[in-house]
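User: I'm preparing a small set of examples for a lab meeting where we compare how different chains pack in three dimensions. I only have the primary sequence for this one, and I'd like the structure in token form so I can line it up with the others. Please keep the answer compact; I'll paste it straight into my notes.
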Amino acid sequence: VDGRLYPAAQQTTGRTGLARPATFDPPLKPRMPELPEVETTRRGIAPHVVGRRIVQLTVYDPRLRWPVPPDLGTLLTGRTIDELTRRSKYLLFRAGSGTLLVHLGMTGSLRVFQSPPPRRTHDHVDVVFDDGTLLRYHDPRRFGAMLWVTGPAALHPLLARLGPEPFDAAFDADYFFRATRSRSAAIKLAL
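Assistant: Understood. Below is the structure token output for the 191-residue chain.
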């Protein structure tokens, strides 16, 4: 568990422009976390945080895409993570009547530690749980977000207008046709 990294997948691009695994062409070039990587992050973190009570939340640098709320530590300390879900590229840590909404941005990562190493330059937030587990948010470019949402998270402006999930029953051929029939953009842009 110590230092297990749950980031966006990192790949590099060679002269051909084709992506190759990072191990073949250092240095690593960070990429935007895509949906499978965010789901992998959720699955990796969930066993360590769901059902655990937050005993401390420390914000070292609140300057992310949107500033980390100054009272986030006060709001979350003492709360138990009831559920960790994903909506699009957002991680939703449901805790009682509110939700911690996390977006990894382009270079963000969450790491789970039992014995955390010293903080690094771009470690922005530490969440300590009742069993001593530490969840650390690291983001060199600070394009991520960590926000507190009261009430139903689905109504938050960042989530309210998102389309259906790719494996949702609502995302079928009819929906896809209706959503793209008036578009004249390339398919990748339309998606």
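A couple of notes for your slides: Residues 83 and 94 are 5 Å apart (CA to CA). The longest strand covers residues 123-129.

User: Perfect, thanks.
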